Amino acid sequence: MNVSHEISLLVEEIQRLGCKNDKGQTSVKFGVLFSDDRCANIFEALVGTLKAAKKQKIIDFQGELLLQGVHDNVDVVLLKE
């Protein structure tokens, strides 16, 4: 899969798993994304896809890198629906 296709799949999964925040943006906790079975089957490298999507300003999250366990409660916010 190419990066743009993986990012579009990521957007779909954030919309499926997330909910609207107070700014009207769709948001999901990293731990929810990481532990979801469907996401595990789609993404070989979820963290890499998240980083690429953040670089393209499609999503945003606190920090540079998200790690399972440590960052489970970090919000991944969809900037472009």
Automatic annotation (TrEMBL):
GO terms for biological process: regulation of actin filament-based process. Residues 1-79 form the Costars domain. It comes from the Eukaryota. Belongs to the costars family. This is Costars family protein ABRACL. The lineage of its organism: Eukaryota, Metazoa, Chordata, Craniata, Vertebrata.
